[in-house]
Every structure is written in C-alpha cells, then in structure tokens.
Design goal:
- By secondary structure, the protein is an alpha/beta fold.
- Helices cover about 40% and strands about 15% of the residues.
- The radius of gyration is 22 Å and the shape is globular.
- About 40% of the residues are buried.
C-alpha cells in the first residue's frame, strides 16, 4: 500500500521536495485499471492463450533455461529470428528492447545532444501527432527534451500543412508516426507520410514508424527501410500485440549504421533469458499466432458491422485490434459496461478530439458478444 501525502514522515517529505524533480512530483504514475472478475477488453491484448500442448512444451523449455547466467548468445539468435520473421531489408539490422517503451526511451537518450549544438541553442524536440501514444511525450520530457504535439483532424487524419509547418518550425530530432495510431486505430495517407518523411529528412531528423499493431494492419513501412531516401527512418515493433504482452519484447529496425549508434545506449542484458527463450519459442510457432491474428481481424470486421447498427454510435475505421467509438455519453457507457462485467478504456479525457470516446479491444468471439450486449444495455 502506498503512503498518502498525509502519512509521509516529515523528514521524508522534506527530502522528496528537495531531491525529486519537480516535474516528476507533479506527474501521475501510469495507471492500470483493476480488472479482477471482468471481461478485460481495455489494453489491446491478444485474448488467446497457447493450446495446452504448446503450453507444456514452453514450460519444459523455460524450465531448462540457465537462469543463473546472464543473457548470452541466445539474444543473437533472437535477433536473427526476428530479422527473418520481419523480412528485414538488406543493409538494415535490429536491436532488442524490454518492450517498445524502453526503445522509445533509448531513442530520447541517444538524441539528447547538448543544447549548444542545436540550431536554437535549446534542447532537441520530439514531435508527434495528437492524440497518440503517451510514451512519446513522457520519455521526451523525462529526458529533458522538448515535445511538440500536432493535433489530428476531426476524423483523426494527419493534418499535413500543420505537420509540415511544425517540422519546419521545431526541426525535430525525432518524429513519431504510430502506424496504425493508438488510440485511433487508423492508418494514414501514404502520400502525406511520404511528404513528412522527406521534410524530416531535410531537417536532419529521424522518423520513427511505431508499428505495434502490425499483425492487424494491411500496410507496413518496413520494406522501405532499404530504399534510398529512407536512411533516416526507423521502424519500431513489439511482440505484445503478436501475443506476448507479458514477455515485454520490442525491437527497433533501421539502417545498420544508425542502429549501431542507438545500440550503444542500450543497457547490458536488458532482455532476460526467459523473455528471450519465450520469444524464440513463439517465433517457431508463428503459424499459431498468425491464426489467432486472423480470428481477431475477422472479429474486428464483425464488431464494426454490429457497431454501425447502433443508433448514436460512431465507430471509426480500424487497422488494429481495437476500435475507437464515440457515444452520446462516454462516462455513462463506460460505467454501465463495467457494472455489467466488461472493462473497456474510457479515453475521453486524453484529448479534446476524443470527446465521448471509448476504446474497445477486440476479444474472442464470446468476449465480443458480451461487450456488445453490455454496450447496448448501457446506451439504452
């Protein structure tokens, strides 16, 4: 149990005020919603577990891992397996992270050049469309970088003139483009993306395509990494949506010379032996995870049809394992669904563009039926 401000001993309270950064003291820790006893559809997790025979095989394999030793050559084996799985282009390489969150933080570390070396003498800037993944801004600010957010359009498309103007104004060191975007779940116009990539390149910055939801998307930027003019582009992926959210394994892809530099700030042994072995096992059984992803894509389409039939509900296009919906009263709908045993994500407070919005994770067919029933009853 955490101590409230009223129960903090005075000597510790004084130490906190004088030692802990003021911006950290004003922040809130990342909150995970209590989900015990609920149908959990709030975090874009793959709802399927491995078949029993694969569970047993994985358990035996993990039981044989030498957990008394630091990670070693198996990390290189995982890098090779991921490169083959992703069909990494020639001339590129990848590095591992303890989830994509760590890689986002490492990018901020690697790009935090001394202020005197920037054109305006100020810390470098991280730029991203909003609403978007909160870790882009959080990692930038905690690492002493500036953050510039560019609002999407009312239909959650990239505002090309605003993005290009922000790039010219801020000359960002890093520009994040979630592809598909979280929490809006959509892919963006490729012609606009090409203009943004070129504009960032002219400013000598880097573009990071965050493809966390790639198993559910119809397009990827990864094959372009090997093409001329994309030397400043990186692709960030995770195995969380693949089906290994509990393993915490992300990877960053890009030109070999660029990855070599970023890899210098990676902590030694950042990916544990059990995580590594579990990821290798999953890649050896990629067909099972591909089957699960196909089920979820089909369920996403079925949910979209059901949502379209609900009066007063707007379901936005999705290329991820989630659907953004706008309802007449999102707080009432969220509380009503939770009271009926279904937990989704209430995101209306994250950005003005998300007014009265809920984010629904695509679950199993049975979970989706329960979610739709809870939503209909909560809207009645």
């Amino acid at each position: 149990m955490s101590m409230t401000a009223a129960t903090v001993p005075p000597n510790l309270a004084q130490r906190l005020r004088t030692t802990i950064r003021q911006d950290v003291q004003s922040m809130h820790a990342y909150a995970v919603q209590p989900s015990a006893g609920l149908v959990k559809l709030d975090a874009m997790e793959n709802p399927f577990r491995l078949p029993p025979q694969l569970q047993r095989a994985l358990g035996e394999r993990l039981g044989a891992v030498a957990i008394n030793r630091y990670p070693g050559a198996r990390q290189a084996d995982l890098v090779a397996a991921l490169a083959a799985h992703a069909q990494l282009p020639t001339g590129c390489r990848l590095m591992l992270g303890n989830g994509s969150d760590e890689l986002i933080d490492l990018l901020a570390v690697a790009c935090d050049v001394p202020p005197g070396e920037t054109p305006d003498g100020l810390p470098p800037t991280v730029l991203a469309p909003l609403p978007g993944f909160v870790m882009y801004e959080m990692s930038a600010r905690l690492r002493g970088l500036r953050f510039a957010g560019v609002p999407l359009t009312a239909r959650f498309e990239l505002d090309a003139p605003a993005m290009l103007d922000a790039i010219a104004t801020h000359r960002p060191a890093l520009t994040y483009l979630a592809y598909p975007n979280n929490p809006t779940a959509n892919l963006w116009d490729e012609a606009v993306l090409e203009r943004i990539v070129a504009a960032v390149g002219e400013q000598r910055g880097f573009v990071v395509f965050d493809e966390a939801y790639q198993p559910f998307a119809s397009r990827t930027w990864l094959p372009r990494l090997g093409q001329p003019g994309n030397e400043h582009v990186l692709v960030l992926r995770t195995l969380s949506k693949f089906g290994l959210a509990g393993v915490r394994l992300g990877y960053l892809c890009g030109a070999a010379a660029l990855i070599d530099e970023i890899d210098k700030v990676r902590p030694p042994y950042n990916v544990g032996v059990l995580n590594t072995e579990a990821a290798l096992f999953a890649l050896e059984h990629a067909g099972e995870y591909a089957r699960q992803a196909a089920v979820l894509r089909n369920e996403r389409a079925r949910l979209q049809r059901s949502l379209a039939a609900l009066p007063g509900v707007t379901a936005f296009p999705s290329e991820a394992n989630m659907i953004l919906v706008r309802v007449p009263d999102s707080r009432r709908a969220f509380e009503g669904m939770r009271a009926r045993g279904v937990l989704v994500k209430h995101i209306a407070g994250l950005h003005p563009l998300l007014a009265n919005c809920l984010r629904l994770t695509v679950g199993t067919p049975e979970e989706n039926e329960l979610m739709m029933q809870a939503l209909r009853e909560s809207l009645a």
